[in-house]
Amino acid sequence: EPEVTQTPSHQVTQMGQEVILRCVPISNHLYFYWYRQILGQKVEFLVSFYNNEISEKSEIFDDQFSVERPDGSNFTLKIRSTKLEDSAMYFCASSSQGGWETQYFGPGTRLLVL
Amino acid sequence: AQSVTQLGSHVSVSEGALVLLRCNYSSSVPPYLFWYVQYPNQGLQLLLKYTSAATLVKGINGFEAEFKKSETSFHLTKPSAHMSDAAEYFCAVSVSRDDKIIFGKGTRLHILP
């Protein structure tokens, strides 16, 4: 069964460093998403991406964040200058259509900022 | 704005007993509702979803949920718990004009032998 994959599974970085989290969505999907979950808190929407542009972003997704689909398979989340509060589990998801169509989630990348 | 509230961050049931995980939603427009499950070290997997068709929705692994508009609830049930059901369960809501999903805080289900 097709699945969303994410790399790395764990990332430790120093505050102020840049990190890139990578995702490979399901191959025929057109809609891509990033969510995050700070330990003990809710899973929160960050951004949705369709047709090579951001379709919606949350208040969390400020100028330090960016997303890119550099080629036909990868979808990346870049955090330019990490802060301690960016420590969280980051989930990538993809769907074949937007709206309420099922979003398929990856296993997540656990980011720890020291 | 939409939101979901999951009652109980931890629920323990005995193997073979009824599983009931509670979720209440808030939405100004007709919602789409979801239950996702997360097994240890895995991603979020869709259990079932309500999209304004039948109010009783059947999902995978014997789970089902009933949409009750009068109670703004979408509780998840399973008649007989199995050890393999131990996981974290997330209730979530979306609306047609937005494609983001709003998640609850999750309920960790423990199965007692």
In words, what does this structure look like?
The complex is a heterodimer of chains A (114) and B (113). Chain A has 114 residues and is an all-beta fold. Chain A contains no helices and 11 strands. In chain A, the strands form 2 sheets. In chain A, strands 2, 4, 5, 6, 9, 10 and 11 form a 7-stranded mixed sheet that branches. In chain A, strand 5 (43-50) and strand 6 form a beta hairpin. The termini of chain A are far apart. The model of chain A has no long low-confidence stretch (mean pLDDT 92). By secondary structure, chain B is mainly beta. Chain B is built from no helices and 11 strands. Chain B starts with a strand and ends with a strand. The relative contact order of chain B is 0.34. The A-B interface holds A 3-4, 6, 31, 33, 35, 41-45, 48, 55-56, 58, 91, 93, 95, 98-100, 102-108 and B 32, 36, 41-46, 49, 51, 90, 92, 94, 96, 98-106.
What keywords describe this structure?
heterodimer; A: 114 residues; mainly beta; four-stranded antiparallel sheet; 11 strands; globular; B: 113 residues; six-stranded mixed sheet; five-stranded antiparallel sheet; 0% helix; 55% strand
Task: Return Rg of chain B in Å.
Answer: 13 Å
Q: What overall form of chain A do the CA principal axes indicate?
A: globular
Provide the β-strand percentage band of chain A. Answer: over 45%
Mean pLDDT of chain A: 92
H-E order of chain A: EEEEEEEEEEE
Largest sheet of chain A: 7 strands, mixed
Helix/sheet category of chain B: mainly beta
Write the layout of secondary structure elements.
The complex is a heterodimer of chains A (114) and B (113).
Chain A lengths: L4 E3 L2 E4 L5 E6 L6 E7 L5 E8 L2 E5 L7 E4 L6 E5 L8 E8 L8 E2 L3 E5 L1
Parallel strand pairs in A: 2-11
Antiparallel strand pairs in A: 1-3, 3-8, 4-5, 4-9, 5-6, 7-8, 9-10, 9-11
Chain B lengths: L2 E5 L2 E5 L4 E8 L5 E7 L5 E7 L5 E3 L5 E5 L4 E6 L8 E8 L7 E2 L3 E6 L1
Put the structure in a nutshell:
The complex is a heterodimer of chains A (114) and B (113). Chain A is mostly beta strands and 114 residues long.
